[in-house]
Amino acid sequence: MTETARTAPQTDLTDPTGPTDLTGVPPRHSAVRSLLRLWPFLRPVRARFFTAAFVAVVASCIGLVIPLVLKWLVDGPVTARDPGGVWLGGGYLLLLGIAEAVLFGIRRWLVARPLAGVEAAMREALYRRVQRLPVAFHDRWASGQLLSRATTDLQLLRMFFTFPLTFLLVNGVTVLVGCAFLLVQHWSLGLVLLVPVLPLMVMCSVFEAKYAVATRRAQDQLGDLTTVVEESVLGIRIVKGFGRHRSQARAFRKLTHEVRTTELRKARLLASIWCVVTLLPEIAIAAALVLGTVQVADGELSAGTLVAFLSTALALRWPVESIGFLLAMSNEAATAADRYFEVLDERTAEETAEGAVAERAAAEGAAGAAGPSRGGAPDGRTDGVGARPVTTGGAAHGAAAADPPDDAPGADSTPHPYDNAGGDADDSPGRDRGGMLFEGVEFRYPDTPPDAPPTLRSIDLHIRPGETMALVGATGSGKTTLTALVPRLYDPTAGRIVLDGRDLTTLTRDEVRTLVAVAFEEPTLFSATAAENVLMGGDDLQEADLLRALAVAQAEGFVRALPEGADTQVGEQGMSLSGGQRQRLALARAVAGRPRFLILDDPLSALDVHTEALVEAALRQVLATTTALVVAHRPSTVLLADRVALLSDGRITAVGTHHELLRDNPEYATLMSGEPDRSDDPERPATDLDGPRPDARSDAHSPGHGDPDHSDHDHGDHHDHGDPDRGDPGPTDISPTAPGPADPGRTDAGPADAGRTDPAARTDPDHCRTSRREGESVR
Ligand SMILES: Nc1ncnc2c1ncn2[C@@H]1O[C@H](COP(=O)(O)OP(=O)(O)OP(=O)(O)O)[C@@H](O)[C@H]1O
């Protein structure tokens, strides 16, 4: 995966309706609609929530009774100069105040715990979704955008449930009840106070639209900021190593400046609406005060009624004034809900697969209706094409046929066109029931431009049960992409992959996980112990599996040397370990569960040649019992395989043994030699690679380099090594304390092994490695 392909979903910030972007989410129509989507999460606590809201409404309305007590007090005991009555009125007011405070306290108590639960449930749902979403989703989304959704946005939503959601309801009811009181007390003065309602509503709706845009922008910018922080922390070695702290700081400053600008805009909008919702009611109250005073002076209104009227109006000030920031908070919550559901609405791998299966079933149904077909290929290819010569390339592919079904006429005798490496002895009847079969596989990354060719095309390949197939190709030819299809990190855009006769898309996630194990070139370790990292490779793995896996990966020595052995925390992403050590732990994880299918993406690239030879020797035993696809850049890794498939520009252009390909395929020979491709050059001088002697490899010294404890030099000198002879499984003792897998007495290991004649051994593995690294940096 290229890092450049990984971008945050872009939001059209000029669009007040919200995102219309890579996430494919329809634009936001209204804050209410966005917020209504939260109901399923709130439903489990609805009883408590509505009880709390009811309690808050009662508490708020108690506040409206206070003006009535004041009216009674002024028109009664105060006018009559009755001190006892005044004390009584004071007592009533105190009781009402206490009741109001207690009820608000109860409301808080009622909702605090359930709403924390709602937030936790939402966070859990998001996490589950993120874990289940396909890799293609993660390619598109910057991690900071996901992090900010899981933290800031959910926090905003919890605050919304706790405060604005309740108080929009409470304040709304309070304002309505208060207005009724005002109109009942004195309808003409009440109308004066209601005059600002219309302009207020207009201003609020303008504010809501503008604030929604600013809020969305701020929350997306915070996501970008989180991404930069995360990348700086995770990539601290690169930042320091290349002295990039200034440019990182600049990028960070730029983003913080943008966030600040957006927050200031939000503050300005908030200030203006706050100003309006404060000023208009104040003007109305002042007008009512003047009119009321005139009426009291004229004897048309009692002083008590005016006091009660004005007290009610003042009691309504807070509910009205709070509308501004309640709307602001609700807006932020609606944006947070949109951002949250953008992730939740993404289709998981299973849902995508279900869709694909349904589409395929529909297509097959249509094809069946159109007439019987011979092969079983989903693309309708016909079978019966003869065996393809070993090194023929793409030209033959156009005619490549799918395996016929077992019951089809001639099924037992038709050689498989992808399977024909030099006198293939395993073209047995019904072989398609086993092994790994790629059938007309095509893959295109979702962000590949439509006019660009797909990353993988017409991939037809059969890896027989128990066979190890090396996958070789120039950098960027699609090797990693092809290996990623088997554990279903991506699904082919055409064709199918069959494991032991079962279409990959019909297997459940658990089945795929049990059948297939992977080790990638970039090993990821989790913040857990070394043992836990390895045992993640399967369910119910025991100590014995751990030891065996560590032995295969030649990781026993260094794991034992860790402060707490296998129980040592290997730290975030295993950063406390060297690259080679991490790679070996990742390899151990891949083999721990004895998977039926093993996918290794250049899993030994970070190892020094001594360790690599030891790992390879031990790996042979594992490979003998699994069906494996191994991405290889070096002859030493290729020699682990029974056969090699050459991937060129996204197509399998040749399949054969290493020696056959070296002899017959110039591109392969060039790749293995690490020389520039001069396969088309007629003046190309003959190289050692041109005349291989497959059996001569037995002459090459085996990886018996002696003390395996010295095997932890992950980037040590390059010596020739390896036992390519598949007939010799190599070591029988994989204990780290045992001598090397081959002749322990042999001491002539080293670069000056003049006697070796194997062409692969003569190629310089370092060359291959160097060219790969260059390729990577270019990529
Ligand atoms: N997530 C992605 N989105 C879009 N294009 C991608 C993605 N990952 C890889 N590619 C492109 O697909 C092509 C094949 O990449 P891939 O990583 O499979 O090559 P590779 O043969 O494994 O290369 P290498 O040997 O350098 O690891 C490249 O052109 C690459 O840029």
UniProtKB/TrEMBL annotation:
ABC transmembrane type-1 domain ranges (all copies): 50-332
GO molecular function: ATP binding
Compositionally biased region (Low complexity): 11-24, 354-372, 393-412
Region (Disordered): 1-24, 351-435, 670-779
Protein's UniProt keywords contain Metal-binding: no
Compartment(s) of residence: Cell membrane
Domain ABC transporter stretches: 436-674
Official protein name in the record: ABC transporter ATP-binding protein
Annotated source species: Streptomyces celluloflavus
